[in-house]
Amino acid sequence: MKSDSFGHEFSYDRAQSLLLAFSTYNKLPKHAKAIDVGVFMKNNELISLGNYDEFFILMKKVEGIPYYKDLERILKEKSLTQLDELKAEALSNYLVEIHSLKLNAPNLYKRRLRELFGHGECIMGLIDNYPEKFIEIEKEKFYLIAEKCFKHIWRIREKTYRLCQVHGDFHPWNILFREKIDFTVLDRSRGEWGEAADDLAAMSINYLFFSLQAFGELKSAFEKLYLKFMENYLNKTGDEEVLEVIQPFYAWRALVLANPIWYPNLSRDIREKLFNFIFNVLEVEKFDVKNVNSYLGSV
Q1: How many Å apart are CA 91 and CA 236, to the nearest integer?
Q2: Computed from CA positions of residues 250, 256, 259, 263, in that sequence, does the dihedral angle turn out positive or negative?
């Protein structure tokens, strides 16, 4: 199967398509029969996979403490250590480093934005997986979120020069810290290349999320971490434009945090503030990192 710009750019895309073909062709009456599916090895050997059931990945074991444990401690103690600030800066510096690698591939930038809207793990996938009772009550609200997100995505889709190396799921549950600021990241998602705003939103919204639980707004220890993380990144990259494209990424991440599937015990007040954040952020052309609380008020 040849590469193309319709979501088949990489070998793992094409593997998905071929496995789908092998799994479905023989189930449809009058369809040409599939005999086997396999893989070409680097030495040109052919290996059959036709008897596959499930795939697995084998990884090296990594020691460390998930970063969200630090945020839970700060939530409980409502105070910071110097190491907490150094960790936030180290995470920001990591993004500065990986985002510095750029790629000229306009179709990949547009693909990532397309997937941001329609992928099963992204905006529409999140909306579709809210509990049905919740959807029925808030149907109009979800419709408006989807509409406003799509408008932002369409607005920024020509900024293809922004394509860079990304992690794709850079949140506190995917980071293991060891001694001081030594850490390892886990579970890179949705491809190698994307929009820097994706990683920034994924991490920074968690400082807001934990702060909402502690103070009902971005305040005190968590505000310090948020500003340390964001301002360090902006100062070292000079990428002010990221604040003009971050809106739909923040909306996506807030949809995750507001979803009762993952956070069933979240208070109604916090859930409402997360939805306020979504709507208010989607109304601005440039996100203001110094006035995050202004996005929490009722719409």
Answers
A1: 13
A2: negative
Tokens 């003009």 locate to 244
State the sign of the Cα–Cα–Cα–Cα dihedral 67, 68, 69, 75.
positive
Query: Per-residue pLDDT tens for 223-262?
Result: 999 999 999 999 999 999 999 999 999 999 999 999 999 9
Distances (CA, A) of 167 to 15, 111, 130, 193: 22, 16, 25, 8
Q: How far apart, in whole angstroms, are the C-alpha atoms of residue 203 and residue 90?
A: 12
CB 37 within 8 A of CB 21: yes
**Range list of H helices, the chain:** 11-24, 67-77, 82-99, 106-118, 123-128, 132-137, 139-156, 196-215, 220-237, 247-257, 268-281
Picking from 104, 112, 105, 122, the residue whose alpha carbon sits closest to that of residue 156 is 112
Distance CA 260, CA 129 (A): 10
CB-CB contact of 107 with 5 (8 Å): yes
Domains of the chain listed by start with CATH number: 1-58 (no CATH), 65-295 (3.90.1200.10)
Q: What averages of pLDDT result for each successive group of 10 residues across the chain (299 residues)?
A: 83 88 89 91 93 91 97 96 98 98 96 94 93 85 95 96 97 97 94 96 98 97 98 98 98 96 94 97 97 93
Is residue 176 a contact partner of residue 64, using CB atoms and an 8 Å limit? Answer: yes
